[in-house]
Amino acid sequence: MRNSISRLAASIGLGVSLLAGSLIAPAVAQAEGEIRIAEQFGIVYLLLNVVRDQHLIEKHGKAQGIDIKVDWTQLSGGSAVNDALLSGSIDIAGAGVGPLLTIWDRTHGRQNVKAVASLGNFPYYLVSNNPKVKTIADFTEKDRIALPAVGVSVQSRFLQYAAAKQWGDKEYARLDKYTLAVPHPDASAALLAGGTELNAHFSNPPFQDQVLANKDVHVVLDTYELLGPNSPTVLFATEKFRNDNPKTYKAFVDALAEAADFAQHDKGAAADTYIRVTKAKIDRAALLKIIDNPQYEFSVTPKNTYPLADFMYRVGAIKHKPESWKDYFFQDEKPLQGS
User: Fold this and answer.
1) Looking at per-residue confidence, does 332 or 261 come out higher?
2) Beta strands of 21-143 (E only): which ranges?
3) Which of 32, 33, 142, 308 gives the lowest tally of CB atoms within 10 Å of its CB?
4) 125-227 fold
5) For position 31, what pLDDT does the model report?
């Protein structure tokens, strides 16, 4: 069993590495009127689904007198997304706050990568099918926890935050040795199938909700209980792209704001958009029940991101200490009022 899941993780890791490697190939700098966007998996990327489905970037570009060509790609894990952004292969990166803070720190004073906007507020669940695992303190060397990227993804940082809270800052990486990088769809399938050492998954919606429909799967950790309501996933870009493409950048920001208003106020249409764009095999009624959860908020305004930033600096995961959330978010024409 151990060999089978190891092969699964290795093959997935190789695929992501090859994909990221292809993206790292030298890329031609993009001119005003072109934008390349990388997203990942799940409902947390619904705003991008709306932007894509309704051609909102193109719409707001035309309002400024330019035609914008939009290219979309899908990756898995903050490491692959960050590599693609730094290679110049994408212009807008979609990933967790963890990868954002890593790349913000790494590019401080150089490319100056910062966040453009939040994608909303959602609880993330660490789930398990092992009845012996009630809390994170119950994990042993026999367990394996799937997450998008080991040590970098926001799920990995949430797990480290929880470990530091449980055992102290010096033990923040205590559970890292039990983690594997596996994309959400594959991890969910493996968890439901059983029969491997992968018996836990730090997930996001709708995958966490789908596996929790199985009576053998339960919640081990809820990030809202850990940190309070927060924005786990964000969009970020380099300072150069923002400065060199002001009209394209503004069209993107305006498109996001319109998408957030649409998704927050018409959940039925938002559910239809998600199914149409992602081609997800999920029942519409079940999906609507998930996104109609009052804990979910589709908004571009970041909420409660700073505690994770402060933690990452405290344990040495980033070298530069942000004084506030504004240090790692761009402040545009309409400044965000976040935290």
Assistant:
1) 261
2) 34-39, 69-74, 92-96, 114-118, 125-128
3) 142
4) D-Maltodextrin-Binding Protein; domain 2 (3.40.190)
5) 64
Which residues have C-beta within 8 Å of that of residue 306, sequence separation ≥ 6?
Answer: 322, 324, 325, 339
Give the separation between CA 47 and CA 242, rounded to whole angstroms: 20
Edge-to-edge strand list for the sheet holding 144-147: 179-181, 144-147, 198-202, 125-128, 218-222
Is residue 200 classed exposed, middle or buried when 0-12, 13-18 and 19+ CB atoms within 10 A define those classes? buried
Name the one residue in this structure whose structure tokens are 């394209």. 248
Q: Is the pLDDT of residue 195 over 90?
A: no
- What is the number of other CB atoms lying within 10 angstroms of the CB of residue 29? 10
E strand or H helix at 220: strand 218-222
% pLDDT > 70, the chain: 91
Looking up tokens 């695929």, which residue turns up?
A: 15
As annotated, the residues of the chain forming the CATH 3.40.190.10 domain(s) are: 34-122+230-327
CATH code given to domain 34-122+230-327 = 3.40.190.10
> Which residue spans within 111-154 are E strands per DSSP?
114-118, 125-128, 144-147
Secondary structure class of 75 (helix, strand, coil): coil
> pLDDT digits over 70-81, tens only?
999 988 777 888
Question: CB burial class (10 A; 0-12, 13-18, 19+) of residue 188?
Answer: buried
pLDDT, average across residues 200-225: 94
- pLDDT band for position 196 (cuts 50, 70, 90): confident
Mention every residue, 6+ apart, whose C-beta is less than 8 A from residue 11.
none
Burial class (CB in 10 A: 0-12, 13-18, 19+), 47: buried
Question: Closest Cα partner for 162 from 186, 192, 138?
Answer: 138
Number of Cβ within 10 Å of residue 64's Cβ equals 13
What is the pLDDT of the chain when averaged over all its residues?
89
Reading phi first (left if > 0) and then psi (alpha if -120 to 50, else beta), residue 187 is in alpha
